[in-house]
Amino acid sequence: MAFLGKDTIRFAVVGSAAFLVDSAILALLVHAEGWNPFAARLASMSVATLCAWCAHRYWTFPTGRIRSPLHQAFIYGIVQCIGLSINYGVFSALIFAGGFWRAYPVLAVAGGSLAAMAVSYVLSKTIAFAEPRETARSRFVDPS
Asked: Is the pTM of this model over 0.90?
């Protein structure tokens, strides 16, 4: 585990928590409320993404808090659209495959989540929660 940085492990923990939020809301909406799994997934992903942003901002990538919350949330939203597109695309393909996946949509959520995890980590670390360039540059400027 020495090759994994603290932020990588924290990213996985937050991602796991977001997966649980996503799955619980999806299961509730599909099985208890009778929602279509596609509409339910859009709702569940939205809530899970907001929860993940808060946890990443304050725990996974705390140096990213240099940016204002609104600015960072906007950047995170754009970055997550890419990850969520991968996630939702895999989920949709599995649901359209029918059978087992249609009967247990939470397992299709897991497939989509795993497919998007690596892309989301790289984009979150390098774009959404990266220090603003002027702050990072100021560390290397000789004050004399």
From this structure: no
